[in-house]
Amino acid sequence: MDGGDPLIALCDQDDIWHPDRLARGIAELDRSGAQLVHSDARLVGPDGTSVLQPSMFRFERRHRHPGLRGLLYRNTITGMTLLMRAEVMRLALPFPQQSGVHFYHDLWLGLIAAATGGVARIDAPLVDYRQHGTNAIGAVDRQKGWLRAGRRRRPDAMWLRREAASYALARYLAQSAHARISDALADGQLTPGRTTLTPLRPYLKRLRGTGSHLWDALRLGLTGHLGLARIAAGFAVVSVGRVSWALREALGPGLSAAIESFDTRLYSLSPGVPPARPRNAAEVATRPVPYATHTDIRKEPRWDPDFTADTPALTVLVPTLNPTEVFAGIVTALDIGLGLAARGHTVRFVATDLPVSSQPASRAFLLNRLPGDAPAGTAARISLACGVKSGTIPAHKGDVFLATAWWSAHVADRLIRRFRLEQSRFFYLIQDFEPNFYAWGPEYADALASYDLDFVPIFNTTLLRDHFQQQGFGFAGPDALTFRPAIDIARYAARPRTGRGPGPRRLAVYGRPEVARNMYATAIEALARFIETEKLAPGDIDLVSLGMSHPPVTLPRGLELRSLGKLPWEKYPAYLLGTDLGLSLMYSPHPSHPPLEMAAAGVRVVTNSFGPKDLGRLSPAILSAPATAPALAQALSRAWHLPAVDEADRKIDLAPLGPTLEATIDRLSRRLAPLTAGRAA
Question: Which part of the chain is the WsaF C-terminal domain (predicted)?
Answer without folding.
Answer: 505-636
